[in-house]
Specification:
Blueprint (H helix, E strand, L loop, with lengths): L7 E5 L11 H15 L3 E5 L15 E3 L5 H11 L3 E3 L4 H13 L2 H4 L3 E2 L4 H8 L1 H11 L6 E4 L2 H11 L3 E5 L9 E3 L2 H14 L5 E5 L5 E9 L5 E9 L12 E3 L6 H18 L3 E9 L6 E7 L4 H10 L3 H9 L8 E2 L3 E2 L10 E7 L20 E7 L2 H11 L18 H7 L7 H10 L4 H8 L3 H18 L8 H9 L4 H8 L3 H10 L5 E6 L7 E6 L14 E5 L10 H16 L3 E6 L14 E4 L4 H11 L3 E3 L5 H12 L9 H8 L1 H11 L6 E4 L2 H11 L3 E4 L10 E3 L2 H10 L9 E5 L5 E9 L4 E2 L3 E7 L9 E3 L6 H18 L3 E10 L2 E8 L6 H8 L3 H9 L17 E7 L20 E7 L2 H11 L9 E6 L4 H12 L3 E4 L1 H9 L5 E2 L10 H6 L5 E5 L9 H11 L4 E2 L2 H16 L7 H6 L3
Parallel strand pairs: 1-2, 1-4, 2-3, 4-5, 21-22, 21-24, 22-23, 37-38, 37-40, 38-39, 40-41
Antiparallel strand pairs: 6-9, 7-8, 7-9, 10-11, 10-13, 11-12, 12-17, 13-14, 15-16, 17-18, 19-20, 25-28, 26-27, 26-28, 29-30, 29-31, 29-33, 31-32, 32-35, 33-34, 35-36
Helix pairs in contact: 1-11, 5-6, 7-8, 13-14, 14-16, 15-16, 16-17, 18-19, 20-29, 25-26, 30-35, 31-35
């Protein structure tokens, strides 16, 4: 029964996308908003992440894009006076914030009750000591362990248990701060890191259960103590690999049914004791040798696994959890199979696989190694009728240029001893290495002994290897029909078969189709709602999906797995496209393979296909659905990579033509167009080999900005300062051909970068605002802080930017979205690049400017004119600042310096009446709260006069200034008192001592552009991250920090909802 003692509910989101906490919480928060509003509640939402659907003003009655900390949340509670707080749908951040508000007495002060969880009981799941005691009381074993609140205690416990041990900090996510320690030295390092990250400064030091199998049960409970097991997840990788990085399968394929029942019974006892209403993830470890079972941990909230379990089973855990928190019970919610959800059991004749996606290539010097601390930036989910089919679909979903398990990264050229040695270190390519080791003659038993992966999975892979070897015997000839049929039923993709047989994919596809070998479609029914399902394909069984003929259908291609450079922002665009099409009366078809997203929610589109975004898979959906056309410009680079082939196969592409998109990517063609139009671009050239590159460098001079063709997120971009660096870059470049050359541009010195998002209908062009970057040109736009509206661009240059944007849109024939990036050097506006597709700034511009750019673009693609729309004109009367968030804490060996290749995983938005406050709030939201007083360490690699102005700003604000020898002398000679401090190799105390002892509250450290610069700079930046000291690597960011601190001293700025901001727009 719906509770009537609550009218207004506060939901706390999870903040920016970080490793360990990604867009699965946008999915869960969006579901919660929909569920509660459907039940008649008023919803107040707080989240700092502008890229999410949940922070759209339409999702809640009041939407606050504000930093997630105690002070801001108390301000919001005081303003909104919610009756209840729902804390378990915003990941670990949401749960931690609820605990903080509870312990500070704020919830009691304002009469806010907590629904869905009992916070005191939650402590018995999150607090490591209470958790142990609670499990002991239930008779459920935990690994032998001890609780440590200091490094000394950790050492004592480890010695008692014996090395190796595992360190688990309390109240963290993604395994942050934890790890395996094989000796005292490693323990001291890991324990120190874990204590600093734990909210309660508490560590669990456990015996090693490395190599056991990890098993998960996802449970949902209502207030009448009815419980159902939504999903049983088997981690194929063993304990020792974080579940977020582990290869996972559902249902459990190799676990004895008696053990499954035993795990379920234990999970039910735990959830009942802790008293959670809604979803809980329970993780166990099982030793196949002894049969011993221990509990690892519970997540008393929706989690990463909850999103996977929801999509794997069709049970929308977050939606149901929100309804249960509002008083409904499982017997009041419909179930497609047996009436009501209290009778739910997992079902479905299919296998689901999750494969993680990493970004090691973005971080120079990082070892490709995975362990107890999560490092994946995204994941894919595949569904097949067999394990082998699902495995192969997962591989081709990853978008790493691999369409099968074999011949990856030259592993087939390695010897068997080399492959077996590589398998001793788990990494992102473990399963590809296993494939080649099996091909080279390693037995499944031998591979299992090294990797602790169960024999059944290795034997399945061995069967794929054996089948592939049969296929390879026909290379250059004709593959027999029965062998092609077997290959397709076991999941081999058209492209992979064509590659290994030396054929064209088109030719192989035509042969397959001539044999009648096409995908059949099967439903995953959705529980908790009436008449909903989504679909997956299989070559192993006949089609079961019957469609009504006719209808106005439009197909949207999603963005695939999250990765650095292509994240949640593109999913935001796809979702808005689906909503706009539905409002226009069209039937919407969504194709995507990412289980974390709102686009793969069951009700975002009329039909969802959970499929890889490849030509083979998309083309068959297109032929099944026969839509009016396909939208490819919202899913980032993913759909664009296959758009040309789809078009050539007869698919109608809606909006901007493929020729126009390719024209913008072809730098030579684009440059000639700009020259004809009189629009300046930096001097540039293209090169497919070193001599051509040297000729270009001789013509335009160093430094050079160099990049590959057809990439997103600045992949492979670099600034090169001399011939040696150029030769190294060209020698290391992969996939450079005359068709895909390297692009070399003159690097613009001290240039301000800016960009404009626009919508064009082919006649009119709408530009809501220009975004000004805080970092100068040379820092990737995705990694630069930026502000709307611009504060430092003169009106004349703004007019040029608007004119150039409109001219380019017309010249390219843009119909839909476009993003153009500019740089202003010595007063002259240069075009850097134009992208006639969605950009990652679309959600940001939409939130700040009070519009939906993606919805507008969708409407114009379907024929509506901009002049028919009511569009805001003029600049916004407040300021929004986007601040990127980086994963450098996960990669402590990496120098956290910004450059032309994007490395941020997410972003936050700060909004206020002026730039200073907006920047201050953006830093606060990103977890780098600027100090209002204290000391600043300044270390400059180059000494421009603007550095003096920045230092003066901090000096006038009352900060004490420290500087390394050259910097201190430079500033002091120019009238800014600066105390000299030794560099690392000069003596003690030195710069690191100041940071470690927290004698400085802010670090300004501008890096040398040259790779051979002293290591001191990198050490300073790494130490700042390790000890939580805010740091700036550009003078522009340092200047903005001074403005922010000054503005915050005048007043904290308060909090306002997006709806309030938007009411100011004209």
């Amino acid at each position: 029964m719906r509770r009537d003692d609550v009218k207004k509910v506060l939901i706390v989101g999870s903040g920016p996308i970080v490793i360990g906490q990604a867009c699965e919480f946008d999915y869960s928060g969006t579901q919660a908003c929909k569920a509660l509003r459907e039940l008649g509640y008023s919803v107040v939402l707080v989240n700092s992440n502008p890229a999410t659907i949940m922070t759209d003003p339409a999702m809640a009655d009041a939407t606050y894009v504000e930093p997630l900390n105690r002070e801001r949340l108390e301000e919001i509670i005081a303003l909104e006076r919610p009756d209840a707080l729902l804390p378990n749908l915003g990941g670990q951040t949401g749960l931690n914030m609820a605990q903080t508000l509870h312990k500070a007495g704020i919830l009691k002060q304002y009469g806010v009750r907590v629904i869905g969880v009992n916070l005191e009981a939650i402590e018995s799941g999150e607090d490591r000591e209470l958790f142990k005691k609670t499990m002991a009381g239930l008779g459920i074993a935990t690994p032998r362990s001890g609780i440590a609140a200091s490094i000394d205690e950790a050492e004592r416990i480890a010695c008692e248990l014996g090395f190796p041990v595992i360190v688990r900090p309390a109240y963290t996510m993604g395994g942050s701060g934890g790890g395996f320690a094989y000796n005292r030295e490693e323990l001291v390092t890991i324990a120190g890191r874990g204590l600093s990250l734990s909210m309660t400064r508490q560590l669990l030091i456990e015996e090693s259960i490395l190599g056991w199998e990890e098993l998960e049960v996802e449970v949902v409970r209502d207030e009448k103590n009815r419980m159902v097991s939504v999903c049983f997840i088997e981690n194929i990788d063993p304990v020792g690999i974080h579940t977020g990085d582990s290869f996972c399968v559902a249902p459990m394929l190799t676990v004895d049914p008696a053990l499954v029942k035993r795990l379920e019974a234990m999970a039910f006892r735990i959830v009942e004791t802790i008293g959670i209403v809604g979803g809980t993830n329970v993780q166990f470890a099982h030793d196949p040798g002894s049969g011993r079972v221990v509990i690892i941990e519970i997540n008393p909230r929706t989690s990463r696994s909850s999103a996977l379990a929801s999509k794997a089973t069709g049970f929308p855990i977050a939606l149901i959890s929100a309804k249960l928190a509002a008083g409904l019970t499982l017997d009041e919610i419909p179930y497609w199979r047996e009436g009501t959800l209290d009778r739910y059991t997992p079902s479905g004749e299919y296998v689901v696989l999750k494969f993680a996606r990493w970004a090691f290539e973005k971080f120079r010097g990082v070892e490709n190694r995975i362990g107890t601390q999560m490092k994946a930036v995204g994941e894919v989910m595949s569904i097949g009728k067999s394990y082998k089919e699902a495995l192969q679909k997962a591989v081709r979903s990853l978008e790493i240029g691999r369409y099968g398990l074999g011949f990856a990264a030259g592993y087939n050229d390695k010897s068997l001893p080399e492959l077996l040695e590589a398998l001793k270190t788990p990494g992102s390519d473990t399963h590809f290495l296993i494939y080649e080791a099996l091909r080279k003659g390693a037995s499944p038993e031998r591979v299992s002994a090294i990797t602790s992966i169960k024999l059944w999975y290795l034997r399945q892979m061995k069967e794929l290897v054996d089948l592939e070897e049969e296929i390879l015997a026909y290379r250059g000839g004709t593959l027999p029909d029965d062998l092609l049929l077997r290959a397709k039923r076991d999941g081999f993709s058209d492209r992979y078969l064509a590659q290994i047989l030396g054929l064209t994919e088109k030719g192989l596809r035509e042969r397959r189709e001539a044999l009648g070998l096409v995908e059949g479609w099967h439903a995953v029914p959705v529980s908790g709602v009436e008449g909903k399902a989504y679909y997956f394909s299989s070559y192993a069984s006949a089609d079961t999906l019957k469609l009504e003929p006719g209808g106005k259908r439009v197909m949207i291609l999603g963005g695939g797995p999250n990765r650095i450079g292509q994240g949640i922002e593109f999913d935001y665009c796809c979702v808005h496209a689906a909503m706009a099409l539905r409002n226009m009366g069209y039937e919407t078809i969504m194709v995507n393979c990412n289980p974390e997203t709102v686009s793969t929610d069951y009700d975002t589109s009329d039909r969802l296909y959970f499929e890889p975004l490849t030509v083979e898979d998309v083309l068959q959906i297109y032929r099944k659905e026969n839509p009016l056309g396909v939208i490819v410009q919202f899913g980032g680079q993913t759909p664009l990579n296959i758009a040309r082939e789809l078009s050539e196969a007869g698919v109608r592409i809606l909006g901007t033509s493929i020729d126009s998109i390719d024209m913008a990517e072809d730098r030579d063609l684009f440059r000639r167009k700009m020259e004809r139009l009189g629009i300046p671009m930096p001097e540039s050239g293209m090169a497919a080999e070193i001599d051509e590159a040297l000729d270009v460098a001789a013509r335009i001079g160093y430094p050079l900005m160099v990049r590959p063709s057809f990439v997103l997120g600045g992949r492979g971009m670099a600034v090169l300062y001399d011939e040696k660096m150029l030769r190294e870059y060209v020698a290391a470049a992969v996939g450079v051909t005359p068709d895909r050359p390297l692009l070399l541009d003159r690097f613009l010195h001290n240039a301000m970068e800016c960009e404009a998002d626009a919508v064009s209908d082919g006649v009119d062009v709408y530009i809501p605002s220009v975004m000004e970057h805080i970092e100068q040109a040379g820092v990737h736009s995705g990694d630069s802080a930026c502000l709307i509206p611009p504060q430092g661009i003169g009106e004349e240059n703004l007019e040029k930017i608007r004119l150039y944007t409109k001219t380019i849109a017309h010249e390219l024939g843009v119909c839909g979205l476009m993003n153009v990036q500019y740089a202003i050097e010595e007063g002259r506006v240069y075009v850097l690049e134009a992208n006639p597709r969605a950009s990652r700034t679309v959600p940001l511009v939409s939130k700040v400017c009070g519009i939906s750019l993606a919805a507008m673009a969708t409407e114009v693609m379907l024929g509506r004119r901009l002049r028919e729309m009511s569009l805001p004109q003029g600049e916004v009367p407040y300021v929004g600042v986007k601040q990127p968030v980086f994963p450098f804490d996960k990669f402590p060996e990496v120098d956290p310096v910004l450059g032309p290749e994007m490395r941020s995983t997410g972003e936050v938005l700060g909004m206020a009446d002026n730039l200073g406050l907006a920047f201050f709030k953006a830093q606060e939201g990103a977890g780098a709260r600027l100090p209002r007083s204290g000391a600043v360490l300044v270390s400059l690699s180059e000494k421009p006069e603007e550095a003096v102005l920045v230092a003066e700003e901090f000096y006038r604000l009352g900060f004490k200034l420290y500087g390394t020898e050259g910097t201190a002398s430079f500033l002091s000679l120019r009238g800014v008192p600066t105390e000299r401090v030794d560099k690392i190799n000069q003596g003690r105390p030195n710069v690191l001592d100041l940071i470690v002892n927290r004698e400085v509250s802010l670090v300004i450290n501008t890096p040398s552009p040259r790779r051979d610069s002293l290591a001191d700079d990198a050490s300073i930046r790494k130490a700042a991250i390790k000890y939580g000291v805010p740091y700036m690597t550009t003078l522009a960011a340092a200047h903005a920090s001074a403005l922010g601190i000054a503005a915050a001293r005048r007043g904290g700025g308060g909090v306002r909802s997006l709806q309030e901001y938007h009411r100011e727009l004209k």
